[in-house]
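Why do we care about 3D structure at all? Because function follows from shape, and shape follows, mostly, from sequence. That is the central idea of this module. The next example makes it concrete: a single protein chain, its amino acid sequence, and then its structure expressed as tokens.
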Amino acid sequence: MGMRPPTGMPSLSRRSRILLVLALIAAGLLLIGPRLIDMYTNWLWFGEVDFRGVYTTTLLTRLVIFLVVALVVGLIVFAALLLAYRNRPVFVPVAGPNDPIARYRTTVMSRLRLFGIGIPVVFGFLSGMIAQTNWVTVQLFLHGGDFGQTDPQFGLDVGFYSFDLPFYRFILNWLFVAILVAFFANLVTQYVFGGIRLAGREGALTRSARIQLAVIAGSFVLLKAVAYWFDRYTLLSSGRKEPTFTGAGFTDINAVLPAKLILLAIAVICAIAFFSAIFLRDLRIPALATALLVLSSILIGAVWPLVMEQFSVRPNAADKESTYIERNIAATRAAYGLTDDVVTYRNYSGEAALSPGEVASESATMSNIRLLDPNILAPTFTQQRQIRNFYGFPDTLAVDRYPDADGNLRDYVVAAREISPQTLDANQRDWINRHTVFTHGNGFVAAPANSVDEAVADESSGGRGGYPNYQVNWIENDAEGSIRKDGPGDLDQPRIYFGPVIANSDADYSIVGSTGEPREYDTDSKSYTYDGAAGVNIGNFFNRLVFASKYAERNILFSSVIGDESKILFNRDPRDRVQKVAPWLTTDGSTYPAIVEGKLVWIIDGYTTLDNFPYAQRMSLEDATADSIESTTTRALPSREVSYIRNSVKATVDAYDGTVKLYEQDENDPVLKAWEGVFPGTVIPKDQVSDELRDHFRYPEDLFKVQRELLTKYHVNDPREFFTNNAFWEVPTDPTAENTSAKQPPYYVVASDVSNEENQASFQLTSALVGYRREVLGAYVSADSDPENYGKITVLRLPTDTSTQGPNQVQNQMTTTTDVSESLGIVRRENTVEFGNLLTLPVGNGGLIYVEPVYASRTNEASAYPQLIRVLVSYEGRVGYAATLPEAIEQVFGAGAGRTVTAPGETDGTTQPGAVPETTPSDGGTPSATPAPATGSSTTRDAAVSGLNSALSAVRTAQQSGNLADLGTALENLQTAVDAYNRAGS
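And the structure:
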């Protein structure tokens, strides 16, 4: 039988090669084309927002990391292949006619460059692509500094753990990858070219193969020794004792830490054993060293710590872990901004016998009790202030504060009226209309949070009242397009081109700019042409082609509505814009609008975070910020875990021109300083924040949620008490959310400042905390948002030997009270009842009052929307239930207690004597404003005012009775009184 010669890979015909090349080019375009388009459009967009330096720095950093790692890995693998090939045996015996190795060898020899260069290139490319995602680690290493705080174990600055150690681990990891791939590449090459032969019982190994494999393996073990050295430092973020605490415990310090040093020494010895194979032919020495390393890793590195933990630590855990819990408490407070200079603890009785006069004297709190729930009223805002179907409001509204006409601080429920792509209908969805006509929203809508237009007389049938007192800034629907300025601030430009509702679309872009006649919808009788600075020019064919490819939309390329001056607005979500220009920030889930210096701006909170602060408690941002409204009303934070967080940046996005500004908030944050070194000039110094803008900064919700979660444990100072959990608190479940165990969200309120004894109103973010595994109230937490005390947290600690009712107990008591349950039972026959935010408010010297609005909307009606029908009040077991807050307060405390509480139709807690409401209701509500003073004789004018007030009272009485005939007569009498008032002033 003749021997069949070894064959290589089959050759391709010329036609097949051409088709293969074309297929590869097409596949490459499909893979790379979209990335190139994104790179170019990002280049244009970053230039438009004046943050191109961020893009180029990030791109250059990624490119350099890719090239360095790809070259290092590729060269190490190439060197392993080259050495194995060049030192191959001259003569390689063939095992027989069907020797598979000979076939592989022939294939490799026929395409030597393909394999010799292709394999290192592939591994280098893949390694570089993965490594470049760690650009943050590299930049923090290059620009990070000191924290000025050292760890308690090694005495090293925290900056080493935050900025340096991650980089060293990054380098080690890629050297491990390169050495491991090189080892197997050299091993396979030696086998293919005869350096290693498996024929016979023992096989054969050439001297060059032995030396090369020994050197590579020895290098790997030597790197492992270096890794053991750095492992000592990572112990300070150990999770062995979680969830009790994060950081090195007794076992880590007394067993694992010495074990790391022992394993380091063994690894060095093992590496020397491998290197000895260069001179010694006996491979048993490195084999024994390897076995020693593996065995010692198991016994010393795993078994010994386990034995110590089980038999020494656990029986005496409270004592043995005490020192390390103390370290964890101190580090956690420092890492999350809960140190003594930030958090103030006050003992609070939780009970006080208050007279009606004492309650009324708490005007800072009582006049500002919030009745409007921003998480419920979005449908009401939409139905009553949408005006056109293509406008819309977010699913959850925002709370902000403005001074009233008398300069008193008041909180408002606010929202921007944006274009809503999801509600465009029929022909409005046409490409031209959607992207070139309906381009912007119109207006800012606010409502004083402490009042409604009027009380609802019959809670079961609804009727008039129970709706917000709207104050608006928008373009009126008239021929002139005049701007209405009734809102709490003076807004000069109410058009909104950037916002979260606008961006809620698969194709988030609008095309604006002059193309002749104005095209954009402004009012029914007037169109508009955008003249702001935002937008990327698409007047040239190339840019149109790029964006047509980006959005897969041929109309961008061929539509005649696009001219030389046309621009495209995209990336219009304020939070996304901030995230793109500051990729190093974690942005808060809430974005809120504010009127600042005549402009409407979106304010976004930005956080700097770390995941390796030594001894600080590690926690998931997603879990810590989850509550009953987060899943449906805001965007959740990333699910990654952190051990350090700071609200270092306040960002604003102009709603008209999209300008992004980053303002320094925490100038002492070392992480922020590092990023300012990476991207110089991108963050505006804190002293350049205007007073008007600073007045609208809120303490961020997500940070507060993280901090209150930690305060449930880290208010405890004694490590032994900490270990037993006895003194812990919990965030209560939301008593107003049905069929869920989600946490109660924190609430923004204007109330008396709990940090002092003065009756002075401040804007706060608050939350109640209950006892551990109990429902009684344990503490009350308040974070101040006023500029002079911004960020100060006050914790009112209730005594553990009393049982002050917590939110769920109060809710249960209020809703099961006979009058309340019977009334709501009737309401539920034809309505859906929703309980608003259950506010916990400190009053007097130790008292706590609970207030909860009750809303109803018609069942099975698509256009139904919530209406405030009643208010619930609870204080020390006494329950009030009435159509107005003053009535409910007086049911609980007695007559006169509600005199400083804001009544329906008012916007503050003080009724001005002689105030005459306007006679023309603006949205079906009762009159609420005061006309200009009359100028006639005082006697005639006083009589007219008296008659007008009497007529207005008759109208309200008729409304409450529900008798339409009486209401018609009362309205006629009211008009007569208005005419008399006007004549008196003429």
